[in-house]
Amino acid sequence: MSDFFIPKLAVVGVGLIGGSFALALKEAGLVGEVVGIGRGRANLETALKKGVVDAFTHSLAEGVAGADVVFLATPVQTLAKVAAEVIPHMKPGSVLTDGGSVKAEVICAIEPLLREDIQFVPGHPVAGTEQSGAAAAFASLYRGRRCILTPTSRTDGQALELIKSLWQAAGSEVVVMTPEKHDRVLAGISHLPHMVAYALVDAVANCGGENENILNYSAGGFRDFTRIASSDPTMWRDIALSNRVALLEVLETFEHSLAEVKRDICQGNGEALYDFFLRSKQRRDAIV
Amino acid sequence: MSDFFIPKLAVVGVGLIGGSFALALKEAGLVGEVVGIGRGRANLETALKKGVVDAFTHSLAEGVAGADVVFLATPVQTLAKVAAEVIPHMKPGSVLTDGGSVKAEVICAIEPLLREDIQFVPGHPVAGTEQSGAAAAFASLYRGRRCILTPTSRTDGQALELIKSLWQAAGSEVVVMTPEKHDRVLAGISHLPHMVAYALVDAVANCGGENENILNYSAGGFRDFTRIASSDPTMWRDIALSNRVALLEVLETFEHSLAEVKRDICQGNGEALYDFFLRSKQRRDAIV
Ligand SMILES: NC(=O)c1ccc[n+]([C@@H]2O[C@H](COP(=O)([O-])OP(=O)(O)OC[C@H]3O[C@@H](n4cnc5c(N)ncnc54)[C@H](OP(=O)(O)O)[C@@H]3O)[C@@H](O)[C@H]2O)c1
Ligand SMILES: NC(=O)c1ccc[n+]([C@@H]2O[C@H](COP(=O)([O-])OP(=O)(O)OC[C@H]3O[C@@H](n4cnc5c(N)ncnc54)[C@H](OP(=O)(O)O)[C@@H]3O)[C@@H](O)[C@H]2O)c1
User: Fold this and answer.
1) Among A51, A260, A261, B84, which residue carries the largest CB count within 10 Å?
2) How far lies A261's CA from each of A155, A167, A285, in Å?
3) Domains of chain B
4) A277: which chain B residues are within 8 Å (Cβ-Cβ)?
5) B153 touches chain A (CB under 8 A)
């Protein structure tokens, strides 16, 4: 599948995304040593014990020294800061890449920091669970999923091919698009649904009277529908802030769709409601 | 579990809910003959072949004649019309019950139609899938789920006990509450999420450009979150219309929650977003 071998991989942020990337590449036999870099000790020790990393350090400079590929997998709003710290210590000719859920803003912040002799390939594996940390990482997370790479005019073709091969080796189908398109698409299929899920749980919790928690009655349907509201608040705060423009646009589109439903309910317009529900059902069924 | 035996059960609307009720009671050995009543022939033939019913007819009068229990499981807005047609033909002392997803409006419409010698027990099994029709029915649908019964001052205690026993025999935990409370609770944990899911699919389909269908990029997360948008449009039109008042109220609460998120994104208020997401996550996690 791949002719590449990475003697040393550095992963900054050994959580679900960074940890699973390391595990997948290890399983594919494509990496030599994996060094994990993080702040907390417990998580890194878990990573070591699980075989996600072969060594760890709290020092970004130490961790990336001599690494052929550096993978950033910390929350979106921290990526540029981390990049600024690691770039001066990276080996000439090495490749920096990331797994952040928002691309345009992150790229804008990182590209000016790059050195001539370092390549940057921005990426986003469209895979995940509501779990986080190294304990949640597993080698097959990316199997059968898409990974979106968003090269810019500055991105080196060979570096792009390398990172593409790694994600393919991890089992993903690689899709290439512009950062702007990525952010627009993800705002719709992922960021908006998360905002909606968080708001829905909030609303249902609030709409009971003083001493009545309506959530207590919720059955499987509600639990399933709101599963993504169990996602990590830090990660989603960062995504909401970093993809603000695209997210506000789809949020407004959603408000209009919901207002249409509300108006039809208000007016008792059964025909319009039926048509609306049927159209959504058909669109939803067409995805599967 | 139950001392009751129902020599003849009539089910009007042999779909997912009516069909599964019949199958569950058959499996529990609590019914003699089950007669299915419906409009379409194909669905009733499926029901007969699957052993959901022992006989079927298109005539409401014929079907309910001699039945000890008549279970109505047609869309919510049709329940009163069906009740008006079956009540004159029901056996003295028999019990009418239903599985409709909205209670107050249905009860208001049915109670004035009742005869002195017929009891009515309004109910709603909180169980279901996005599938419909007799083909989708299965005996264990109600196992481990809740069934809400909403008696009124007119409801006979013995009839209530009978219907309660039947749902318990089907494997459900029976909860008793007022019709109004039922409608308020269900508006929050079920009806609102369905409206939101239909609107979300609509919005995401609309927010791509002319020749860009963003839905094509949707992965497992979006599919899971919007599963309930594949539900039957007729059923949901009827629920939206029949539970209009309670639904509009929670819809507005939801609009406020969403507006709060939107405002915080607009203002780049990361702290407020984090707090909001964390609170929802904690509430969601507390359900499980
Ligand atoms: N989860 C998903 O569904 C998913 C999918 C695709 C992409 N992503 C993206 O992947 C990245 C990581 O997500 P994840 O789900 O793997 O999260 P995670 O499991 O919480 O892992 C993130 C790691 O980053 C480190 N970290 C957290 N805050 C940091 C900070 N301020 N500075 C430096 N390091 C920090 C943490 O380690 P220490 O505490 O030890 O520093 C943590 O182990 C995010 O950019 C996210 O948007 C997530
Ligand atoms: N699905 C759920 O998740 C769920 C959960 C709890 C309660 N409920 C409630 O249970 C009831 C039935 O839902 P379901 O999911 O079982 O639907 P379903 O599978 O579509 O079955 C409904 C049945 O009612 C009959 N019907 C449809 N329109 C009718 C009309 N205008 N007049 C007379 N009969 C009609 C249909 O048979 P014919 O076409 O042969 O007449 C159909 O088989 C609804 O009141 C619903 O709100 C549903």
Assistant:
1) A261
2) 45, 41, 20
3) 6-176 (3.40.50.720), 181-287 (1.10.3660.10)
4) 198, 231, 233, 236-237
5) no
